[in-house]
Protein backbone atom coordinates (compact mmCIF):
# COMPACT_ATOMS: atom_id res chain seq x y z
CA UNK A 1 0.00 0.00 0.00
CA UNK A 2 1.39 3.38 -1.01
CA UNK A 3 1.02 6.42 1.22
CA UNK A 4 -0.19 9.37 -0.84
CA UNK A 5 1.09 12.87 -0.10
CA UNK A 6 -1.62 15.43 0.71
CA UNK A 7 -2.67 17.55 -2.26
CA UNK A 8 -2.12 21.29 -2.30
CA UNK A 9 -4.93 23.72 -3.04
CA UNK A 10 -3.47 24.27 -6.51
CA UNK A 11 -3.31 20.49 -7.14
CA UNK A 12 -6.97 20.13 -6.14
CA UNK A 13 -8.12 23.05 -8.30
CA UNK A 14 -6.06 21.92 -11.29
CA UNK A 15 -7.42 18.38 -11.00
CA UNK A 16 -11.07 19.45 -10.95
CA UNK A 17 -11.32 22.78 -12.81
CA UNK A 18 -12.22 21.13 -16.13
CA UNK A 19 -15.34 19.43 -14.75
CA UNK A 20 -18.71 21.02 -15.52
CA UNK A 21 -19.81 22.98 -12.46
CA UNK A 22 -16.33 22.59 -10.98
CA UNK A 23 -16.69 25.05 -8.10
CA UNK A 24 -18.61 22.84 -5.69
CA UNK A 25 -16.44 19.74 -6.26
CA UNK A 26 -13.35 21.92 -5.74
CA UNK A 27 -14.70 23.38 -2.51
CA UNK A 28 -15.68 19.95 -1.20
CA UNK A 29 -12.26 18.50 -2.06
CA UNK A 30 -10.42 21.37 -0.38
CA UNK A 31 -12.54 21.07 2.74
CA UNK A 32 -12.01 17.31 2.77
CA UNK A 33 -8.24 17.80 2.53
CA UNK A 34 -7.83 20.67 5.03
CA UNK A 35 -10.97 20.49 7.19
CA UNK A 36 -12.02 23.96 6.02
CA UNK A 37 -11.65 26.37 3.08
CA UNK A 38 -8.56 28.49 3.77
CA UNK A 39 -8.82 32.14 2.77
CA UNK A 40 -5.82 31.65 0.50
CA UNK A 41 -7.83 29.15 -1.56
CA UNK A 42 -10.39 31.74 -2.67
CA UNK A 43 -7.98 33.66 -4.90
CA UNK A 44 -6.54 30.48 -6.41
CA UNK A 45 -10.01 29.15 -7.22
CA UNK A 46 -11.23 32.51 -8.59
CA UNK A 47 -8.24 32.91 -10.89
CA UNK A 48 -8.44 29.33 -12.16
CA UNK A 49 -12.20 29.44 -12.81
CA UNK A 50 -12.11 33.03 -14.13
CA UNK A 51 -14.47 34.26 -11.44
CA UNK A 52 -14.19 36.98 -8.84
CA UNK A 53 -13.25 36.35 -5.22
CA UNK A 54 -16.67 37.74 -4.30
CA UNK A 55 -18.39 35.06 -6.39
CA UNK A 56 -16.39 32.31 -4.68
CA UNK A 57 -17.01 33.82 -1.23
CA UNK A 58 -20.72 34.04 -2.06
CA UNK A 59 -20.93 30.32 -2.73
CA UNK A 60 -18.91 29.46 0.38
CA UNK A 61 -21.12 31.63 2.59
CA UNK A 62 -24.34 30.37 0.99
CA UNK A 63 -23.69 26.71 1.88
CA UNK A 64 -23.50 26.19 5.63
CA UNK A 65 -21.51 23.01 5.08
CA UNK A 66 -18.38 24.95 4.17
CA UNK A 67 -16.10 26.16 6.92
CA UNK A 68 -13.76 29.12 6.64
CA UNK A 69 -11.83 28.33 9.81
CA UNK A 70 -10.30 25.18 11.16
CA UNK A 71 -12.85 23.05 13.03
CA UNK A 72 -12.41 21.84 16.58
CA UNK A 73 -11.30 18.35 17.53
CA UNK A 74 -14.94 17.31 17.74
CA UNK A 75 -17.76 18.52 15.50
CA UNK A 76 -21.18 18.64 17.14
CA UNK A 77 -24.16 18.72 14.80
CA UNK A 78 -27.56 19.47 16.31
CA UNK A 79 -30.61 18.37 14.33
CA UNK A 80 -33.04 21.21 13.66
CA UNK A 81 -35.59 19.26 11.62
CA UNK A 82 -39.26 19.32 12.60
CA UNK A 83 -39.28 15.90 14.30
CA UNK A 84 -36.41 16.87 16.59
CA UNK A 85 -37.93 20.30 17.21
CA UNK A 86 -41.16 18.66 18.36
CA UNK A 87 -39.11 16.65 20.86
CA UNK A 88 -37.21 19.61 22.34
CA UNK A 89 -34.27 20.41 20.08
CA UNK A 90 -34.80 24.18 20.41
CA UNK A 91 -34.10 24.14 24.15
CA UNK A 92 -31.17 21.76 23.57
CA UNK A 93 -29.84 24.16 20.94
CA UNK A 94 -30.03 27.12 23.33
CA UNK A 95 -28.33 25.09 26.06
CA UNK A 96 -25.56 23.90 23.73
CA UNK A 97 -24.79 27.44 22.56
CA UNK A 98 -24.67 28.70 26.14
CA UNK A 99 -22.66 25.76 27.47
CA UNK A 100 -20.08 25.97 24.66
CA UNK A 101 -20.12 29.78 24.53
CA UNK A 102 -20.41 29.77 20.74
CA UNK A 103 -23.02 30.01 18.01
CA UNK A 104 -23.50 27.71 15.04
CA UNK A 105 -20.55 27.52 12.64
CA UNK A 106 -18.06 28.50 15.34
CA UNK A 107 -15.38 26.71 17.34
CA UNK A 108 -14.65 26.95 21.05
CA UNK A 109 -11.55 28.92 22.02
CA UNK A 110 -9.85 25.74 23.27
CA UNK A 111 -10.48 24.21 19.81
CA UNK A 112 -12.19 21.16 21.33
CA UNK A 113 -15.63 21.64 19.78
CA UNK A 114 -17.29 23.09 16.69
CA UNK A 115 -21.06 23.52 16.62
CA UNK A 116 -23.16 23.11 13.49
CA UNK A 117 -26.85 22.84 12.63
CA UNK A 118 -28.13 20.05 10.43
CA UNK A 119 -31.63 19.40 9.15
CA UNK A 120 -31.92 15.65 9.61
CA UNK A 121 -29.73 12.94 11.01
CA UNK A 122 -32.15 10.17 10.08
CA UNK A 123 -32.84 9.41 13.73
CA UNK A 124 -36.26 11.04 13.92
CA UNK A 125 -37.92 8.55 16.27
CA UNK A 126 -35.18 9.15 18.84
CA UNK A 127 -34.99 12.93 18.80
CA UNK A 128 -33.67 15.29 19.67
CA UNK A 129 -30.59 13.93 17.95
CA UNK A 130 -27.00 15.07 18.02
CA UNK A 131 -24.04 13.80 16.01
CA UNK A 132 -20.59 14.21 17.48
CA UNK A 133 -18.00 13.34 14.88
CA UNK A 134 -19.48 10.14 13.42
CA UNK A 135 -21.51 9.09 16.49
CA UNK A 136 -25.25 9.77 16.56
CA UNK A 137 -26.84 10.23 19.98
CA UNK A 138 -30.62 10.15 20.31
CA UNK A 139 -32.98 11.36 23.01
CA UNK A 140 -30.43 13.99 23.94
CA UNK A 141 -31.47 15.96 27.00
CA UNK A 142 -29.42 18.87 28.32
CA UNK A 143 -28.01 16.55 31.00
CA UNK A 144 -27.05 13.95 28.40
CA UNK A 145 -25.49 16.68 26.26
CA UNK A 146 -23.36 17.81 29.22
CA UNK A 147 -22.24 14.21 29.84
CA UNK A 148 -21.34 13.84 26.16
CA UNK A 149 -19.26 17.03 26.32
CA UNK A 150 -17.36 15.63 29.30
CA UNK A 151 -16.84 12.30 27.51
CA UNK A 152 -15.55 13.90 24.31
CA UNK A 153 -13.44 16.43 26.23
CA UNK A 154 -11.68 13.49 27.88
CA UNK A 155 -11.12 11.97 24.42
CA UNK A 156 -9.48 15.25 23.33
CA UNK A 157 -6.99 15.00 26.20
CA UNK A 158 -6.11 11.38 25.50
CA UNK A 159 -5.96 11.83 21.71
From TrEMBL:
Iron-sulfur keyword on record: yes
- Which residues fall in a coiled-coil region? none
- Cofactor requirements of the protein: [2Fe-2S] cluster
What molecular function terms (GO) are annotated for this protein? 2 iron, 2 sulfur cluster binding; metal ion binding; oxidoreductase activity
User: Transmembrane region positions?
Assistant: none
Similarity comment: family membership: Belongs to the complex I 24 kDa subunit family.
* NCBIfam families tied to this protein: PRK05988.1
Q: Enumerate the PANTHER family for this protein.
A: BIFURCATING [FEFE] HYDROGENASE GAMMA SUBUNIT, NADH-QUINONE OXIDOREDUCTASE, E SUBUNIT
Q: What is the protein named?
A: NADH-quinone oxidoreductase subunit E
Which of UniProt's keywords are assigned here? Answer: 2Fe-2S, Iron, Iron-sulfur, Metal-binding
What residue range is the signal peptide?
none
Q: Does the keyword Ubl conjugation apply?
A: no
What organism, scientifically named, is this protein from?
A: marine sediment metagenome
Q: Which InterPro entries match?
A: NADP_DH_HndA-like (IPR028431), NuoE-like (IPR002023), NuoE_N (IPR041921), Thioredoxin-like_sf (IPR036249)
Q: Name one Pfam family in it.
A: 2Fe-2S_thioredx
Amino acid sequence: MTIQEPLSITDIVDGLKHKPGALLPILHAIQEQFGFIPESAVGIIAKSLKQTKAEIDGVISFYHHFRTSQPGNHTIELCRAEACQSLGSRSLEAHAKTKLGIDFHHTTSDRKFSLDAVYCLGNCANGPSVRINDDIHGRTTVDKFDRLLEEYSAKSVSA
